[in-house]
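Need residues for this backbone.
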């Protein structure tokens, strides 16, 4: 199964992040689902992801990755210089996640909340579960 990115479907920044990934993933390596969707909730349960997660989750090879680890693993598969973001793995996870949590905590305040889902283009539809 292709790696799946679960994202907060209500978050403007998260929506833009999905578009960012799609643009830099021309081979369609990643699939996507919103955390709030039925399939998203089923996958969270199937992978035993903690219930209090409300931001980025990467499901890959029967394992889930959260927060900064998920973001860096995604970046490592993107085209361009984004692969080099994986150098941030040398930063201890605890420190990376403190930064991630601080950003995630303020994302609605800084970028707003969506009241409707984005409609993927015809070309993108096959990448969403």
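Answer:
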């Amino acid at each position: 199964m292709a790696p799946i990115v679960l994202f907060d479907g209500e978050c403007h920044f998260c929506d833009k992040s999905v578009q960012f990934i799609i643009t830099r993933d021309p081979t369609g390596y990643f699939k996507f689902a919103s955390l709030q969707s039925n399939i998203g909730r089923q996958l969270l349960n199937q992978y035993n992801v903690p219930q209090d997660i409300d931001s980025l989750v990467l499901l890959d090879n029967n394992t889930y990755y959260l927060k900064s680890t998920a973001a860096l693993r995604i970046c490592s598969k993107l085209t361009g210089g984004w692969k080099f973001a994986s150098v941030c793995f040398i930063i201890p996870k605890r420190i990376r996640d403190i930064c991630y949590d601080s950003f995630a905590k303020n994302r609605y305040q800084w970028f707003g909340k969506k009241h409707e889902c984005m409609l993927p283009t015809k070309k993108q539809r096959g990448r969403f579960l």
